[in-house]
Amino acid sequence: MKSPNEFFGAAPEVHTWAPGRVNLLGEHTDYNDGYMLPIATPQRTDVLADRSSDGRFHFYSATLDETAEFGADESSPDGFARYIEGCIRLMQARGVQVPPLKVYVRSNLALGTGLSSSAALEVATLRALRTMLKVDLDGVTLAQIAQQAEIQYAGVNCGIMDQMASSLADTEHMLFLDARTLDARLLPLPVGAEIIVIDSGVPRKLAASKYNERRSECEAAAGMLGVPSLRDVGRLADVEKLPSPLRERARHVVSENLRVLEAADSGGAISAGRFGELMNDSHASLRDDYEVSIRELDELTEVLRKHPDVYGARLTGAGFGGACVALCKTGAAQTVGQMAVNRVNAGGANARLLIPAPQR
Ligand code: GLA
Q1: Does residue 77 sit in helix, strand or coil?
Q2: At the fourth CATH level, which superfamily is domain 190-355?
Q3: According to CATH, where is 3.30.230.10 located in the chain?
Q4: Which ligand 1 atom sits nearest the alpha carbon of residue 211?
Q5: What is the DSSP letter of 203?
Q6: Contact between residue 191 and residue 174 where contact means Cβ atoms under 8 Å apart
Q7: What pLDDT does residue 112 have?
Q8: Pairing relationship of beta strands 56-61 and 193-199 according to DSSP bridges
Q9: Where in the chain is the domain with CATH 3.30.70.890?
Q10: Substitution site in 21, 22, 25, 28 for ligand 1 pocket (most atoms within 8 Å of beta carbon)
Q11: Any catalytic annotation for residue 238?
């Protein structure tokens, strides 16, 4: 692995970073113009950048120990470089002159666990470009460009949650997001509670194809209900007239939006107990109606839920593998999280505690 010094030869011009995200509530709602409540991870991606002296782009990922190099008129090779190139090309498309650059990336965000390491890379890269090239760019616009980099250059048809969270959230609050208006408000976590995040150890294999399938199902359901998107369905009962499985998909989205609104409408005054119940309901809805859970995530959340210090637990992110999140009593996260990991691993799982970072 190269150090920044070995890569740049001297201190680089800019150093920026951005966090990953854990979604506490509001899953598969962003591409339905709905609501969600993510929080930033303490884990983050750092981007160091400087101008290149040979007219070519040079990117290096310390996490992957991989280099990518290409000319100003060429495309980057596939892999981590696509995200960075996407950000550069989209800035150029906005009229910003971007010179050939050297970019060094390092991250302690575990890849492929559903904590949005790609959004963190995009947001940190755009922050580096903003600082270096003195571009006027607010956090919401930056998130929108980051999302386009993901869609157009990495080929992932995602919503806006991950990039908005990486750009605007912190680790102390939950961020209430409205995906239609892009309104964003920081709210306190329920009093007396903290979070646990555990990677199930199961890679998100089917994620891309199933994700796109769910998106189409939601569009079809909205079309049949005569609304622009499922966000506009007024009453939960309205979805019952849809044929299966559109009925179940729509039921998840509409009920999930109601859960987020309940959690956020009190302006952060919701009790930890009630928030936990909403998380449990969200998991059941993702498992039964939206069908994006897997056995390992059901088991992990079940083990967590049974602990007296846990208020609630659910899968987080797109599903089909990845991580789960639980809300527990302040001070209990480390012990309870490690207990749950040990329990499922004794049964052959490959889980690991991500938040709080395990003590060595
Ligand atoms: C992925 C996508 C997000 C969102 C979640 C599901 O993380 O990138 O836009 O749709 O899945 O809530």
Answers
A1: coil
A2: GHMP kinase, C-terminal domain (3.30.70.890)
A3: 4-186
A4: 11
A5: -
A6: no
A7: 77
A8: unpaired
A9: 190-355
A10: 28
A11: no
The per-residue pLDDT for range 66-124, each reduced to its tens digit, is 999 999 999 998 999 999 999 999 999 999 999 999 999 999 998 878 899 999 999 99
Q: Answer whether 0.90 is exceeded by the pTM.
A: yes
Per CATH, domain 4-186 is 3.30.230.10: yes
- List the structure tokens of 272: 């930890």
Task: Confirm or reject: Cβ of 128 under 6 Å from ligand 1.
Answer: no
Residue with tokens 């991250």: 107
Residue pointed to by tokens 């995009």: 122
d(CA 277, CA 286) in angstroms, rounded, equals: 14
- The answer to whether 330 and 91 have CB atoms below 8 angstroms apart is no
Query: Ligand 1 in contact with 34 (CB < 6 A)?
Result: no
**Catalytic residue of the set 30, 50, 162, 199:** 162
Query: Which 3 state secondary structure label does DSSP give 326?
Result: strand
Tens digit of pLDDT for each residue in 25-80?
999 999 999 999 999 999 999 999 999 999 999 999 999 999 999 999 999 989 99
Amino acid identity, position 38: P
What are the tokens at 323?
């991580």
Structure tokens at 263: 């959690």
